[in-house]
Amino acid sequence: MEILKEISTQLQLGDDEKVFELTKQAIEQKIDPKIILADGLVSGMNVIGEQFKNHDIFLPEVLLAAKAMYAGMDQLKPLFIKEDMPTLGKIVIGTVKGDLHDLGKNLVGIMLKGAGFDVIDLGKDVSPERFIETAVKEDAKLIGMSALLTTTMPMMKTVIELLEQNNLKGKIKTVIGGAPITEEYAKEIGADAYAFDASKSIECVKYLLSD
Ligand code: B1M
């Protein structure tokens, strides 16, 4: 669809106002919000990721693209989140310590809220202690962690080890995700589940909390 290509292009150009406007138009055209997200916003961000990797663009362009992505996500958010739903359980999410990437984690939060979970979002750069202290204080049964850097992935292991040391492993489940994370890594560090994307995170969380 032409409008989705245009959203992707304007996101790559870092034009947040155009992305905001085009996303609004796509919603008015009754295009499925999940399609707008996947084929417009995320597809544009994937191109940015490749260009950044190949040094065709640099950090300022990536920041502008991220701002544009937020402009689109702001439009879509109310369509994913239905208010006054009975809660399916309380969970804590965040991006691990040292990592400032939060677009994917925010998407996961929006989708999980939309699916009916009570989501406590600790934001980015979250220390292992803070994940656990919050989960205990709020009586949350699951911690969801996001990492986008290979250098911050080990923080997930630290959280799981800390759960173990406090006899909380199993009582508080863990779901991990983010571009460098794999099923194998989740197994290796003893996470309860790996979710490839936001939709998959709903499946994982529902399954783990139904135990
Ligand atoms: Co950075 N960055 N970045 N960056 N950035 C990556 C991750 C990188 C792969 C780019 C590249 O080289 N191709 C690379 C990492 C390389 C590596 O570790 N091997 C990289 C780097 C190097 C860096 C810096 C170190 C650059 C520098 O300073 N020289 C720096 C680090 C800062 C820090 O964190 N300490 C940095 C900074 C930034 C910005 C701040 C400019 C910006 C982030 C803005 C923000 O998030 N507010 C940024 C961006 C935007 C990217 C790329 C281009 C896009 C990431 C993104 O938002 N994707 C990224 C390239 C890439 O990933 N290919 C890159 C869209 C988002 C929807 O997808 O986050 O993958 P994603 O989330 C997905 C799934 O992964 C999953 O669901 C989402 C989709 O449904 N998911 C979960 C994510 N979390 C989950 C949790 C779950 C379940 C699923 O359960 C709890």
Descriptive account of the structure:
The longest helix is centred in the N-terminal third of the chain and has 22 residues, at 59-80. This protein has 9 helices and 5 strands, in the order ααααβαβαβαβαβα. The chain is globular. Helix content is 57%, strand content 10%. It folds into 2 domains: 2-83, Methyltransferase, Methionine Synthase (B12-binding Domains), Chain A, domain 1 (Orthogonal Bundle), CATH 1.10.1240; 90-209, Cobalamin-binding domain (Rossmann fold), CATH 3.40.50.280. A 5-stranded parallel beta sheet has the order 2-1-3-4-5, with helices on both faces. The relative contact order is 0.11. It has helices spanning 2-12, 16-28, 33-53, 59-80, 103-114, 128-138, 154-165, 183-189, 198-209; strands spanning 90-95, 118-121, 142-146, 173-177, 193-194. It is α/β, with parallel strands linked by helices and 211 residues long. The chain binds CO-5-methoxybenzimidazolylcobamide. CO-5-methoxybenzimidazolylcobamide is lined by residues 42, 45, 48-49, 52-53, 59, 62-63, 66, 93, 98-105, 107-108, 144-146, 148-150, 175-180, 195, 197-198, 201.
